[in-house]
Amino acid sequence: MEKIVKLRIFSAIFRTIRAIIMMEKGKQFLSEKEIKINMLTINLLNLAVPEGFDVLTAEEVKNLNPLKEGDGGGAIRNSEKHILVSAAWKKHGGLVSLLVSQDEGIEALEKQLAKALKPYGYVRDEFKKETVGTKEADAVVYHYEAQSVPMCAESIMVKDGGIYYYIHCYYRSALAEESRKVLEEIFKDSSWA
Question: Both 22 and 103 in a single domain?
Fold first, then answer.
């Protein structure tokens, strides 16, 4: 984790210096899209952070993960639109990565979600396919109630060799249509290292 943080800092410093040099020469270094979109790096996943979203602190992220999955992760939030996206990854070795497909993994995750969210009126809506950056993902869409507020959520799993990536998206049911459009943009603009 420390290595990734150092690499991100070095990369940011390098890009800043290069941008300054380009500006001094009268050229724009970053495209309009790059200016608007930042990335939150979760192992090999570069999760897009659109304008209006904040990256949560490590302490805030720690309090968000009821399933305690993953070796590392992060989260972004848009408080105005009531959207929260958390991501984590976990490396499974040997037999697990060989025997458990992505489809089976999302089914197992759904069972964990159903158990953890049962007190909140958990109801599974559907299993579906999703695309995160360039990778195919499996997802489960569900709804529940938090502090008397109807909520929608989508939990996504991407298997990359022996590494499983978990992305959980939460938004208010009343804002579901608008929130889904924002999430689609996040997934489309995300990338993999």
Answer: no
